[in-house]
Amino acid sequence: MNRPLPEPKVHPVKPFQGCYTAIVTPFTPDGRSVHRENLAAQIAVQIEAGVAGIVPCGTTGESPTLSESEHQLVVETAVKLAKPRGVTVIAGAGSNSTAHAVHLHQLVHRLGADAALQVSPYYNKPSQEGLYRHFMTVADSAPLPIMLYNIPGRCGVAILPETIERLSKHPNIVAVKEATGSMDSASEIRQRCGITILSGDDSLTLSFAAVGSVGVVSVLSNIVPGRVRALCDAFLSDRFADARRIHGELFALARGLLTIDTNPQPLKCAMELLGRDTGALRLPMVALAEARREQVRQLLHACGLLGAGAVAKAAARSPEPGA
Hints:
The chain is of the alpha/beta class. It has helices at residues 36-49, 68-82, 98-111, 128-140, 152-155, 161-167, 183-192, 205-209, 225-236, 240-257, 265-273, 290-302, 310-316, and strands at 18-21, 53-54, 88-92, 115-119, 146-150, 173-178, 196-199, 215-218.
């Protein structure tokens, strides 16, 4: 049974910029339960690296396979550990049922999240008017900032720039995680309205910055949060030569972890190899076949993340001087 929740409070809108880590949900080796100690350790790594925020219960966090009590546990843990250290918590709360999305949105609001990540309804493929009404209904349900999650590759439908422009007029809809992979889409959004744009693809973080993005919701920063933070700090302070160099250092790892297989399967494999996760996934996600596991191992070796002393260095490496 879920524990009683505190009374909701009005959340002031925070500016969203920099590195936000879409954290994995660590499971016990049998996959039956959330591994609380590993979850706390993962959050601690992010805090120590100085990321702007963490995003629990998103795609990378395997939210579709979490029970509501587990969803609550993960968000509660993130709020308890991260917020006192000044790390923003943007909790996944989306659904392809508007009523359920409202329920989750109100839940994470009561739990103390700083904002909610609201993904496009998936599988049912609504029209643009349906998307607009869905997000407006959710936004009206609680005084909590919303980051839209635009990922047509998983949802079957994109939130078009003109729809994002309409949605941006709601005071609670303040940002979009743009995971379309389209520079045209990001450019048109920026031309149409002032909503905050963050990249949803690690390999495109710097490219999106050129058209107005101010950060990234990152998968890669589960492993190298300090380096992804340094990338964001560099372009946000107009040090584009530094940003291009860091992007070059991260590109192979970013592309590899998101193309070897479906996220978060390669990421969890990598974290297991680095000694930071059990590697357990829940069906329909499965462990990588040995050939693909070897690809991940070789990728980590090539990036200098496997070997004596490499793990701690990769997880907590300090940002660039002057960042």
